[in-house]
Amino acid sequence: MADPVATQTALRIAPLKPGSGFGAEIIGLDIAQANDATLDAVVDAFNRHGALLMRGQKLDPAGLMRFIHRVGTPEGHTIQDFTLSGFPEIYVLSNRVENGRPIGAHNDGVGWHTDYSYKEEPVMSTMLYAVEVPEEGSDTLLADGVAAYNALPPERRAALEKLRLHHSYRHFMETREHQRRTLTPEQIRDNPDVIHPLIRVHPTDGRRALWPSTGTVTEILGQDDPTDLSLLDELVAFMTGEEFVYRHKWQVGDLLMWDNRCTLHTGTLFDDKKYIRTMHRLWVKGDRPY
Fold this sequence. Notes:
Layout: H1 4-10, E1 12-17, E2 22-27, H2 36-49, E3 51-54, H3 61-71, E4 74-75, E5 83-84, E6 87-94, E7 97-98, E8 101-102, E9 125-132, E10 140-144, H4 145-150, H5 154-160, E11 164-167, H6 169-175, H7 185-190, E12 194-197, E13 199-201, E14 208-210, E15 217-221, H8 230-239, E16 245-248, E17 255-259, E18 263-267, E19 278-284
């Protein structure tokens, strides 16, 4: 891992959300031309800032895979319908239709969540690369779980530390608003329910974050009525307040990556009759939350 001091001097970094300490934009870096030491400095900056933006990139699929291998081990996708030919770790998000068939998943990721929260080891990072961008709409919003946790009174933090969340992929897929589907027996077998903490500790430096999610949670364990999800709704509403949220307005060539260990995110809708949106999504393997 790159030395933190060297990271700050080697990269031109600007805040994503000025005044908040959340997120960073690395300015003037061409990922395709960067050497391994520079890419390691980028990874170090990512681990410390929660989200990272690099604009103006020109990356083919092989270039995306080269970069993600510096971040960590690529994670595969539960649904294989829209993975890129020859690159199974790259998932296409798009409303474009070619030869009568969609080339990607449309309106995927709408609703505040963290990716793969229904897995024993949720993905550490999500990376989106913008190929086609609407002139309006389709923004991506990121919520800072560390700032939200720190804004809570100490006694509230202590109470929340005792709670665990029951996540279910089957519940998520069979009740979601967009891309709803009934799972096959094999998908159910391969994605058993899991229990994760509501407050998550970041392995890089021990910072704590609120770590709720919507869609996958069926119970809050540790409260009198585990099936009462009103506390979850309250915490998501708090964490996604304007003071904790960065709104990203996409440009072609943007590479935006965020840390699923300490954030929530959501996509937003756009006029899909008027505009085309195509993104390449990649995931990095994570570890068991604690």
